[in-house]
Amino acid sequence: MDTAAELRKSRVPAVLVTLASVRGHAPREAGAKLIVTADDLHGTIGGGNLEMTAVTRAREILASESESEPEMLTLRLNDKAPARYGRQCCGGEVSVLLEPLPVPASVAIFGIGNIGLELTRILARHDIDVHVSDSRPEHLEELDRLEPPVAQVHREFAVIGEEVLLGLPPGTHVLIMTHDHAEDLHLCDAALTRGDLGSIGLIGSSAKWQRFRKNLIAEGHTPETVDTIDCPIGLPDLPGKQPATIALSVAADLLSRMV
């Protein structure tokens, strides 16, 4: 489990392989575990054809682009059973459970004002990575008032938010809502320059967006690239201007795209 936690922290996808049940003789007892990544193995469920069959299937799961569900393999360990990686004549039968350990989704919130704090409160209840950044340390301290999170919450104090943005994992969903429109514009520019983010959202009115769009195109971004930024953000059918309502709208829209 320590290995699984380290792989999650390092954002390395893996599959947890568990010897779920054993009938008769087998190399390992029920409960033996193995973690498979694309390049490494941690632990063992007994070696031989049993282990290599599980490893092969685990790596097929890792290579799949679709989200995979846990699955069970049943293998007979006798000299008459089909064996791709050599025969095992233990005489038993085993069931092997393969559980994907995917890399959690990553979200970055720039600006921990009233809406940013409420948005962090909502997203922190989900099994994701949440990066929160602000140039005002006293606003980051407000995170101490939140309930213990389910998410991995990373707080980043940064006078220049672009430095944090450039260090985010690929595929991160970025939400820009700082107290300074100039900072928002710089962050939009940096986000577009990366080109490998999951999505980019900017809080603001249609008038704000039109100014930003004009400036970003003047900076050299193509109109098609600029228009990948979502502004305004949130669900258009959920009205209300209270910070908690806006945060709920933004979170619902974001989570629906991350499923």
UniProtKB/TrEMBL annotation:
Domain XdhC Rossmann residues, every copy: 107-254
Every XdhC- CoxI domain range: 8-65
One Pfam family, short name: XdhC_C
Record-linked InterPro entries: MoCofactor_Util/Proc, NAD(P)-bd_dom_sf, Xanthine_DH_XdhC, XdhC_CoxI, XdhC_Rossmann_dom
SUPFAM superfamilies in UniProt: NAD(P)-binding Rossmann-fold domains
NCBIfam families (alphabetical): xanthine_xdhC
Protein name: Xanthine dehydrogenase accessory protein XdhC
Lineage: Bacteria, Bacillati, Actinomycetota, Actinomycetes, Micrococcales
